[in-house]
Amino acid sequence: MKQTVAVILCAGLTLMTAPAQAETRVTVLSFDQLEGWEADDHAAAFEVFRNTCADLDDPDWQSVCAYATSNPDPRAFFELLFRPVLIEDGNDALFTGYFEPELNGARSPSEKYRYPLHKMPPEAREVDKWYSRRTLLEEGKLAGRGLEIAWVDDPVELFFLQIQGSGRVNLPDGSKLRVGYGGKNGHEYRSIGKELVRQGIFQPHQVSAQVIKNWVRRNPLEGRELLYHNPSYVFFREVSEVPAHLGPLGAMNRSVTTLRTIAVDPAFVPLGAPVWIEKDGKDPMRRLMIAQDTGSAIKGAQRADIFFGTGDEAGRAAGRLKDPGRMVVLLPIQRAYAMVPEPVE
Length: 345
Description:
By secondary structure, the chain is of the alpha+beta class. The strands form two sheets. The protein has an eleven-stranded mixed sheet with strand order 1-2-3-4-17-13-14-12-15-5-16.
C-alpha cells in the first residue's frame, strides 16, 4: 500500500509516518511531562527490565543493558539513558488486563476431564493459516495424534485459557501442570464479546469475561456457536520447569511480573522496552512497566494488556479493566531522536 509521510514540529519533536489508512504520530517528551513519574517505585521496574534486557540484541539496547549491570540508581538510570516517546496511531488508548488462569484437569482423559489442551502439529507451523477452530473441533483434526498435553473439565475455561495464552492445570494428586503459548492456527482473533454486543444481547459496558462465561453456560448451543465465532485456536507447550513463585512465560520466553509486565503490539512498541502507563478510569494507575508480552487482541500504538497475576482474584481484576489513558514508551536516547526527521529546507 502506498505510504504517506508528513512532518510536524510543535510542543516537542514530532514525526508522522504511516500507511495511508492511519497516520502514526511520534512525539519525544521530557520526564517532567509524565504524570506521577517521580512517585513510582523505579527500583521495582528496573528489576523487571533487567530480567529481559540481556535478550535485546540491537546495539542501542545493548549499551543500555550493559550499564544496567553496574547497579545504578534506578530512577537516574531511566532518566539518563532514555527519552519518553509518545506513539499515537489515531486510535484512543485502551488498557485491559490479563492473568494466568487455573483450571482443573488430568494427564489422562476421563468422563470428568474430556477437553484436551493440544501441542501444535508440525504441519501447522509450515503454513500461514491452518484449519479454523470450528473445523479443528467439529471434524476432529487433532484427535488420535498424541498431541494432548492434558484434559480439563470445562470447555469454556479452556477457551479463555487460549485467550490468555498460558495457565496452570490443577491435577488430581495436588500437583500443578503449567502450560505456555505454543503457537496458533494463523486465523485472526475475533472478539466474542463484541459479537454478543453486535447481536444485541448485551450493551458494551455490560460485557466482561465472567458475563460471557455465564451466558455461554446458560445457552450451550448458542454458546458453542459463539465460541466458534473466534476462528483462532491456540496450542500449548508444557513449561512446568518455571518455578511456582514466578509468573508464566511471556513472548520473550521469560517470566512476566504482576502489575509490572504489559502485553503490547510489537509493530509499535519494542519488546523489552520500559513503558510509562497513565491509566485512567475507576482506579487510576501511574506506573513504569515493561513490554514483555504480546496478544492476539493487542493491536495498536496505544493498546496495552496489564498482567494481574495468577488465579481467580487476578482474573476478576483483569476482567474488570477496560480503561482509557495514555502510554509512553521509553527508548534509548539515540533511537528516540533518530525518529525525528531532518528539517526540510
